[in-house]
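Weekly sync notes, structure subgroup
Attendees: PM, AL, DS (notes)

Item 1: joint prediction request from the bench team. They want all four components modeled as one assembly rather than separately. Inputs as received:
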Amino acid sequence: MPYPAKTSAEQILSAAITRLEQGGQAGLSLRALAAELKLTPNALYRYFGSREALLAAMAVQGAVLLLQALEPVLRNSLSPQGVHELARRYLAFARTRPALYDLYMTCDSLSSEQQQTYEQLWEQVVQQLQPLAGSHSAQVAMTLWSYLHGLVGLERSGVYDSPGSPKPPQNLAFGLNLLLAGLRTLESSP
Amino acid sequence: MPYPAKTSAEQILSAAITRLEQGGQAGLSLRALAAELKLTPNALYRYFGSREALLAAMAVQGAVLLLQALEPVLRNSLSPQGVHELARRYLAFARTRPALYDLYMTCDSLSSEQQQTYEQLWEQVVQQLQPLAGSHSAQVAMTLWSYLHGLVGLERSGVYDSPGSPKPPQNLAFGLNLLLAGLRTLESSP
DNA sequence: GTCTATAGAGCGATAGAC
DNA sequence: GTCTATCGCTCTATAGAC
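Output from the run, pasted for the record:
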């Protein structure tokens, strides 16, 4: 075999995610990626037919990692403390892998695998929220998700750094308690 | 005058914002912008010293427009209905000018003018929320902002389009009412 | 499966004439 | 203030040799 494989799809994907977190999605070039792997750019095309295909594979990986991060908290019904823990893990993921989180959230050409992972996550959250939220579980889940996703965005834009602004950890606890308090008033009149 | 002005900073800015909304920030090129104005790319540099300077000017414009959209609701203390109205206007702005909204939120090289507009907006919201939120006004404002910003992002990513998901208008009303309900329980024990 | 080489297109920014 | 011309760089993707 004159040309033994010098790389693999897994290796490329892993290196691509590392580069993604360093330079963002727009800054990820196949040339630089190939150079890091000591390959010519052309070699990558044997494993991913296009740049978009590589991005899609990375998005799937992001979805899987997020699910893994949240799953331990979703094995049982969510208590108020469980909601706090779920939120902390969600934010930790978004902070640790900001570009991958972005890619997962904004990749519009969802593969079926990615769609499946998302739906699995969504259904678990809605179900485990039912003891707390009853019939409004889906609405509460969406409100919670919006709040968390927004917190990630505002934190990233530096809004929380302004003088006089609440800080993210404090605001997270406050916001969640506000939601949970509102939830309790809902139980009386569902 | 052998070379009368064929354009102006205002005209360039206006055309740039239009193009921004069509192709996004990454898709805005000085070459294409100049072509639309029937100018050579070089001519733009007389008005904006660099692409970044143009982006900053656009972000300022975005801040001003957002403030204008929200100001009528912020002239008096916010009632619960006022919060709903404020949120509707905020979302309307983010939907109507998504790329400008993005630019405003993510532009990290804030000019002092932009910073000023932002602080003006923030202080107005915090102040007008006080009758509802008391001493937690800043925390509530940040929670509200995070929720709204997140809703914009999730709506854009298509999450709200999934089958079984709540729809944005319903979730907006639900989420706001949840926050407001939580707020009422806070009044008893500030 | 990887290589060299290149097609083909995009971009921001600058120099100097008028 | 706008022009022509161009520098220098980026990128994705393809063709064909080995």
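Discussion: Chain A is about 70% helix and 0% strand.
Action: AL to compare against the crosslinking data before next sync.
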